[in-house]
Design goal:
about 0% strand, mainly alpha, about 80% helix
C-alpha cells in the first residue's frame, strides 16, 4: 500500500512539473535544437525562397511559372514512371531471388544473404560505374563484340537511355526488397510447406498459396521504401549521363546550378519533398502493419 502511494505521488509530481519532468525536457532540448538548426531551418529557407521571385517581393509567381513549364511536367512524368517501373522490377526480381536464397539449398546461401546486407551500404553511383564498365560505349561487352566481329561499335548502347537508368535502379534497389522478404521467410512455418508438398502441391502452387500471402506485407513495405528512394534518386541519373532523362532531382540541379534560377529550383524541391513525405508516410503505415 505504501509503495502504491509513493508511485502515485511520483506520477502526480511529474504531472505537476517536478524536477524529473524538467530534467527530461532539458535532455530533449539539445537534439531538438540540432534538428531544427541543421534540418528544419534550411528546409524553411528553401520554402521561403520558393515564394520569392527574382523580381522581389513574395508571391506565388515562381510556382505558377514552374507548373506551367513543359520541363517540369516532363520531369514529373519521367520521375513517376521511372520510380514505378523500377519498383515493379525490384519487387519481381527481389521476390524471385529471396525465394531462391531462402528455400533452395545451395552452398553459400548464408553468405549471399549476408552480402545483401552489405550491398545496402553501397553508394548508388558505384553500381552505375560498374554497369558503365560492362555495358558502356567502351565497356567490356562492346569491346568483346568489336573484337570478335570487327564492327566499329558494339550493340550495347542503351546505358545512356531511360532503359539504362531503369536497369541501374533495379540493380541497386532490389536488395532493399530482398531484406524484408528474407526476414519474413525466416519466420515462415516450414511445416506448412511440407504439408502442402505431401498433399501433392507443386512448387508454383506452394509459392502462390502458401509463401506469397505471408510475403505480401514485406513486399508492400519493401516496395514502398524503394518507391520513395527511386523518386529521390540523383546519382544514378547523373552518372549514366542519360540523354533526355530529367527527373525532379535533376531539374533542381539544372535550375540551381546551370540556370541560377533559385526560386524555380526551390519550387521543384518543395514539390519533390511533399511527394516524398507523403510516400514515406505510406511506407511507415505499411511497415507498421507488416510488423504487427
Amino acid at each position: 500500500m505504501a509503495e502504491a502511494v509513493r508511485k502515485a505521488r511520483v506520477v502526480r509530481a511529474d504531472a505537476d512539473g517536478s524536477p524529473r519532468s524538467l530534467g527530461a525536457f532539458v535532455w530533449a532540448l539539445p537534439p531538438v535544437a540540432l534538428l531544427a538548426l541543421f534540418f528544419l531551418y534550411p528546409l524553411a529557407l528553401v520554402v521561403r525562397q520558393s515564394f520569392r521571385p527574382d523580381s522581389g517581393g513574395t508571391s506565388l509567381r515562381p510556382y505558377a511559372d514552374v507548373f506551367a513549364s513543359e520541363a517540369f511536367r516532363q520531369a514529373l512524368w519521367t520521375t513517376v514512371w521511372l520510380a514505378l517501373a523500377a519498383t515493379a522490377g525490384c519487387l519481381v526480381l527481389g521476390f524471385l531471388l529471396a525465394l531462391v536464397i531462402a528455400f533452395v539449398p545451395f552452398p553459400g546461401a548464408k553468405a549471399v544473404a549476408r552480402f545483401v546486407d552489405v550491398f545496402l551500404s553501397f553508394p548508388s553511383f558505384l553500381i552505375t560505374l560498374a554497369l558503365l564498365f560492362v555495358y558502356g560505349s567502351v565497356g567490356m561487352a562492346n569491346g568483346a563484340w568489336t573484337g570478335l566481329t570487327g564492327a566499329a561499335q558494339g550493340p550495347f548502347q542503351f546505358l545512356n537511355t531511360p532503359w539504362g537508368v531503369l536497369l541501374a535502379e533495379v540493380t541497386y534497389f532490389t536488395p532493399f526488397v530482398m531484406r524484408p522478404l528474407l526476414a519474413a521467410f525466416s519466420q515462415l512455418d516450414t511445416a506448412q510447406l511440407e504439408a502442402a508438398g505431401s498433399l501433392g502441391a507443386r512448387a508454383p502452387r506452394i509459392v502462390r498459396k502458401v509463401i506469397l500471402p505471408e510475403a505480401l506485407p514485406a513486399l508492400a513495405a519493401g516496395g514502398s521504401l524503394v518507391l520513395v528512394l527511386c523518386l529521390n534518386e540523383f546519382g544514378i541519373v547523373l552518372f549514366t549521363g542519360a540523354k533526355g532523362v530529367t527527373t525532379l532531382p535533376m531539374l533542381v540541379y539544372s535550375k540551381a546550378i546551370l540556370e541560377s534560377d533559385y526560386p524555380g529550383a526551390c519550387v521543384v524541391a518543395v514539390v519533390n519533398v511533399l511527394i516524398s513525405v507523403g510516400l514515406y508516410g505510406l511506407y511507415r503505415v505499411v511497415s507498421r502493419r507488416a510488423s504487427a
